[in-house]
Amino acid sequence: MSLKNQDKLGVRAVVFDISGTILDYGCRGPLAAFIELFARYGVSISPAQARESMGLHKRDHIRTLLETAAIRDRWTEANGNPPTAKSLDVLCAEFAPLQAGWVVQYHELIPGVVEVVNELREKGIKIANTTGFESFMIKDLIPLAFKQGYYSDLWVCPDHVGQGRPAPWMMYYIAQKLGIYPPSTFVKVGDTPADIAEGHAAGAWVVAVVKSGNEVGCSCSELAALPAAKRKAKITAAKKKLLAFRPHYLIETVADLLPVIEHISGRIKKGETSRVISRVR
Questions:
Q1: Sign of the C-alpha dihedral, residues 280, 208, 132, 79?
Q2: Which residues pair with 190 in a beta bridge?
C-alpha cells in the first residue's frame, strides 16, 4: 500500500498511556509508590513534588526528585550525605517491586474506556500502550485490565527500547511491530507533559486527558466531592499546564475521545499533518 493510500485511511492506531488515562482515575498508584519509597529513607515528599515529573521513565523520575533542591537537602539531613549515583541505583532497585505492588491496587478502568476502545477496533484502528513503567511493574496489571474488558495489541515499556519519554522510541517500536505508518496516522493519548512530548517527538497527533489524569490528581469520587469552585480551579490549572505543551486536543477523559478521532481522521484525509499545531480544540 502506498503512503498516500495509508493517509486516506485516517487514524490507524491510538496509543494510550496507562495510569490516569485508561485506568487509575487520578493517577494515584505511582504517587503512593514514590512517597513510600522516599519515606523509607526518612525523606518526605509532597504529592505535588511526586507528581511533577510523572510520565517519565521511573528512573528518570527518581533522578529528577533527587535533584530537586528541597528533597536533596532533606535527603542529606536524614542520611548524612547528599544523594549519589549509588543512591539512585538503590532507590530504583527498591522502586520496581514497590511500584508493582501499588499499581495493581489502582487497577480500575476509567469509565468509558472499554466502550471507546471497542468502537475504535470496529473501525479497524489498532490499540497500543506506552508508559513510564518498566515491563516488570505492569506484568500483573495487564491481566487485571483484560479482565475488565481492556485489550491492547501491544504494551510497550522503556526497557523494551532502551529509553523512555520524551524520546519517541516506544512509539516507533509500536509502528514497526504493528506494521503501521506514517506516524501522522497515529494518535497519542495521555495525561502528562511527558505524554504530549512523546507524541510530538514521534510525529503523532496528541490528545491530552485532563480530569482523570495526574495534573488534577483526584479519584472520580474525590473530584465530585470537592466544592464546585475548587473543582473548577483544579481542572482549569491542569488545562493550563497541559496547554503549555501544545497538544492538538484536550479532553476530560478517554470517554470523550471518539469525536476527536473522527475529527483527526477528517483532517488527515484532507492532507493535514500532525506537525501543524493550530489552536487546541
A1: positive
A2: 208
Cβ distance 185 to 8 under 8 Å?
no
**221 domain residue, yes or no:** yes
pTM: 0.90
Give residue 42's region: left, alpha or beta (phi > 0; psi -120 to 50): left
Cis peptide before 158 (omega within 30 of 0): no
Bond prior to 143 in cis (omega within 30° of 0): no
Lowest mean pLDDT among 5-19, 24-38, 74-88: 5-19
Q: Is 261 left (phi over 0), alpha (psi -120 to 50) or beta?
A: alpha
The total number of structural domains that make up the chain? 2
Any idea which residues carry the catalytic annotation?
17, 58
Domain coverage including residue 128: 3-27+110-269
At residue 8, the pLDDT reads 63
Length of the chain: 281
Clarify whether residues 155 and 67 are in a common domain. Answer: no
pLDDT, tens digit, for every residue of 169-228?
A: 999 999 999 999 999 999 999 999 999 999 999 999 999 999 999 999 999 999 999 999
CA distance 17 to 168: 13
Chain centre to alpha carbon of residue 86: 28
134 plus 181 within the same structural domain? yes
pLDDT of residue 279 exceeding 70, the answer is no
Q: State the pLDDT confidence band at 1, using cuts at 50, 70 and 90.
A: very low
Q: How far apart are CA 6 and CA 18, in angstroms?
A: 27
Helix (H, G, I), strand (E, B) or coil at 212: coil
